[in-house]
Structure formats: structure tokens, C-alpha cells
Amino acid sequence: MYKQVKLSKERIQKLERIGSDWRRRDTAWDEMYQKLVRFKDAYGHYDVPTK
């Protein structure tokens, strides 16, 4: 599990002013999830090789 850290609104605004993309993590997760779904559809299991 990831440690959930809460930032103040001021810190969030500062990060956004310099271009922080809060959706990037969600986008990367969604892309990997879709790859996993396609793998399962193709091979019938979730045992993805590590190499």
C-alpha cells in the first residue's frame, strides 16, 4: 500500500503553477490495467511473465 499524504491547498497550487500533472499517475495506471485486460483475454490468466 502507498502512504497517503495530504498536501495543503497552497502547496497544491504551487505545484500546479509549475506544471504538475496530477492525472499522470492515473493515466499510467489505466494504461497498465488495459494491458492486463488484453493479456487476460489473450491467454486466459493473469500470470504475466516478468521478463
CA radius of gyration = 17 Å
As an assembly, this protein is: single chain
- Percent helix: 55-70%
What sequence of helices (H) and strands (E) makes up the elements? HH
User: Can you tell me the overall shape?
Assistant: elongated
Structural class: mainly alpha
Record the SSE blueprint.
Elements: H1 9-17, H2 23-43
Structure in words:
There is one protein chain. By secondary structure, the chain is mostly helical. It has a domain at 21-45. Helix content is 59%, strand content 0%. It is built from two helices and no strands. The chain has helices spanning 9-17, 23-43. The longest helix is centred in the middle third of the chain and has 21 residues, at 23-43. The protein is elongated. The protein starts with 8 loop residues before the first helix and ends in an 8-residue tail after the last helix. The relative contact order is 0.08. The mean pLDDT is 85.
In short:
The protein is an all-alpha fold and 51 residues long. Helices cover 59% and strands 0% of the residues.
Give keywords.
2 helices; 51 residues; mainly alpha
